[in-house]
């Protein structure tokens, strides 16, 4: 197996991961790389899930080519920290995810779309429209990896399914503390009765 070891990341353009088509064949070539912590910090941005201090994203890709179709599979792993949307506490969010991409030349996709248009106008979901495309002689899988990573992140992370969250009144963490809100005059029959008695 043709093993290419590379270190890459947005903050180091020279080492960005590039898969050259001329290096690919029907046999898989393996690429290993690391997206640096700075890249993760930038890409996760305002998401409620952040990289652990110093954590990097490790990626292993196996790429092969059949005619003009490029098949990429592999996995990515990293250590993230999520902030619970209910109690605001941080909890570990390890990522270990399979990657699988099929890329066809952009020109082939345009051709496939045109064929659909020339039929009676019925909406036909072609296989090609499900695939990613490439142009030129090389593929940078960074956008594909970024998209897969962002898809894994919950919009509203929850530290555990039964997290009770913070009290909206006193702000106490109801998982560990009791609410200390002052009792209010609820509209209960007893409260109404008390008022009557006082009058
Ligand atoms: Zn929580
Ligand atoms: Zn409270």
Features:
single chain; 199 residues; alpha+beta; 2 domains; seven-stranded mixed β-sheet; two-stranded antiparallel sheet; 4 helices; 31% strand; elongated; binds zinc ion
Q: Mind sketching the topology for me?
A:
Layout: E1 2-5, E2 19-20, E3 29-35, H1 37-44, E4 49-51, E5 57-66, E6 69-83, E7 90-105, H2 106-118, E8 132-134, E9 138-139, H3 142-152, H4 189-198
Parallel strand pairs: 1-3, 7-8
Antiparallel strand pairs: 2-9, 3-5, 4-6, 5-6, 6-7
Describe the structure.
This protein is α+β, with helices and mostly antiparallel strands and 199 residues long. It folds into two domains: 2-163, no CATH class; 166-199, no CATH class. The chain has four helices and nine strands, in the order βββαββββαββαα. It has helices at residues 37-44, 106-118, 142-152, 189-198, and strands at 2-5, 19-20, 29-35, 49-51, 57-66, 69-83, 90-105, 132-134, 138-139. Strands 1, 3, 4, 5, 6, 7 and 8 form a seven-stranded mixed beta sheet that branches. Strand 5 and strand 6 form a beta hairpin. The longest helix has 13 residues, at 106-118. The termini are far apart.
């Amino acid at each position: 197996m043709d093993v290419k070891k590379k270190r890459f990341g947005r903050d180091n353009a020279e080492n960005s991961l590039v898969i050259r088509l001329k290096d690919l064949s029907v046999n898989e070539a393996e690429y290993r790389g690391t997206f640096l912590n700075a890249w993760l910090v930038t890409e996760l941005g305002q998401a409620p899930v952040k990289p652990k201090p110093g954590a990097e994203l490790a990626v292993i890709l196996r790429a092969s080519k059949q005619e003009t179709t490029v098949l990429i599979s592999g996995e990515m792993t990293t250590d993230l920290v999520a902030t619970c949307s209910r109690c605001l506490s941080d909890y570990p969010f390890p990522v270990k995810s399979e990657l699988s991409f099929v890329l066809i030349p952009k020109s082939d996709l345009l051709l496939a779309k045109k064929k659909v248009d020339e039929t009676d106008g019925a909406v036909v979901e072609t296989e090609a429209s499900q695939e990613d495309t490439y142009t030129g002689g090389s593929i940078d899988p960074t956008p594909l990896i970024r998209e897969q990573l962002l898809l894994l992140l919950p919009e509203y992370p929850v530290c555990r399914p039964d997290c009770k969250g913070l009290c909206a009144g006193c702000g106490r963490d109801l998982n560990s503390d009791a609410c200390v809100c002052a009792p209010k005059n609820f509209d209960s029959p007893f409260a109404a009765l008390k008022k009557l008695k006082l009058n």
